[in-house]
Design brief:
The protein has 278 residues and is mainly beta. The chain has a domain at 81-273: Sandwich (Jelly Rolls), CATH 2.60.120.560. Helices cover 10% and strands 27% of the residues. It has one helix at residues 3-31; strands at residues 81-82, 92-94, 103-105, 108-110, 118-120, 127-134, 149-153, 157-161, 195-203, 206-208, 211-214, 216-222, 225-233, 256-257, 265-273. Strands 1, 3, 4, 6, 9, 12, 13 and 15 form an eight-stranded antiparallel beta sheet that branches.
């Protein structure tokens, strides 16, 4: 055999051995793939799952929404219930009975003074709520007479809507307050005429045997600023009353918006129902 043929044969033999070793290494790596999670770690409270349990169900995937600008409302998350689409109030009704009579135009709706509060047809339990509101510009009135409205969770716990930009009123009645109970942590109001946001997480009270077992709680971000931090709600809100829980109203209720005779505007309202994690 010629020397050149022997060199060529040796080259191919070496290449074949290298390829075989590479295949074995890859196969071994696939066989020894890192396991997802553990079964030999401590049990978490409740005795259902280990720490880092690989069998624990994964959370559902939700496509996030987009942020709003002053000119354009953002898009809601993929699993949100849209309560106002910029066109009509078909998901709302008047508390007096019949359809909601507030004015809809240009992608927002506005309080029609004297027509009464409106509330959602659908009822909700624990929720994440997003809504945007804008105060009349130029402003009129002072204290509680300036751009007054309200967001009533479960139809009875009010998060105050008010033009609190350079407007002094009692602390538990300004924008971001749990009305009559808890002032906001800070005043995060924008000037009248600008769109403002509320992002609210709310859990209703839990009742047992006709009594409140656990109170309702609320967390509120106004314009991205925390103004209520897992705040305990002491009961139904109202003007000049001591807060108290009404008789058991159940675990769900409507979202309600207040007609306080001021032409406050609303847009981009959606809710995500909060469901327990496995």
């Amino acid at each position: 055999m010629k020397k050149s043929s022997m060199v060529l044969l040796a080259f191919f033999a070496t290449l074949a051995v290298a390829m075989l070793i590479g295949f074995q290494v890859r196969a071994k790596g696939q066989q020894q793939k890192e396991p997802i999670g553990y079964e030999d770690t401590p049990m978490l409270p409740g005795g259902k799952w280990h720490v880092h349990d690989g069998m624990r169900p994964h959370p559902p995937i939700v496509t996030p929404g987009t942020f709003s600008s002053q000119q354009t409302p953002g898009q809601p998350p993929a699993d949100a219930i849209v309560l106002f689409n910029g066109k009509d109030l078909s998901k709302w009704k008047s508390v007096k009975g019949g359809p909601a009579e507030w004015k809809v135009q240009d992608g927002y709706f506005q309080v029609a003074p004297g027509t009464g509060d409106i509330r959602t047809i659908q009822k909700f339990g624990p929720i994440q709520l997003h809504l945007e509101w804008s105060e009349p510009n130029p402003p009129h009135g002072e204290s509680q007479g300036r751009g007054n409205s309200g967001v009533f969770l479960q139809g009875q716990y009010e998060i105050q809507v008010l033009d609190s930009y350079h407007n002094i009123t009692y602390a538990d009645g300004q924008a971001g307050a749990v009305y009559g109970q808890h002032p906001p942590l800070v005043n995060a109001c924008r000037p009248p005429g600008e769109w403002q946001t509320y992002d609210i997480a709310f859990t209703p009270a839990i009742w047992q045997g006709g009594e409140v077992h656990l109170p309702a709680y609320v967390t509120v971000f106004q314009n991205g600023v925390l103004v209520q931090n897992h705040t305990e709600i002491w009961g139904s809100t109202g003007h000049r009353i001591f807060p108290h829980y009404k008789p058991d109203v159940g675990s769900t209720g409507p979202l309600e918006l207040q007609d306080h005779h001021n032409p406050v505007r609303y847009r981009n309202i959606w809710i995500r129902e909060i469901k327990p994690v496995s």
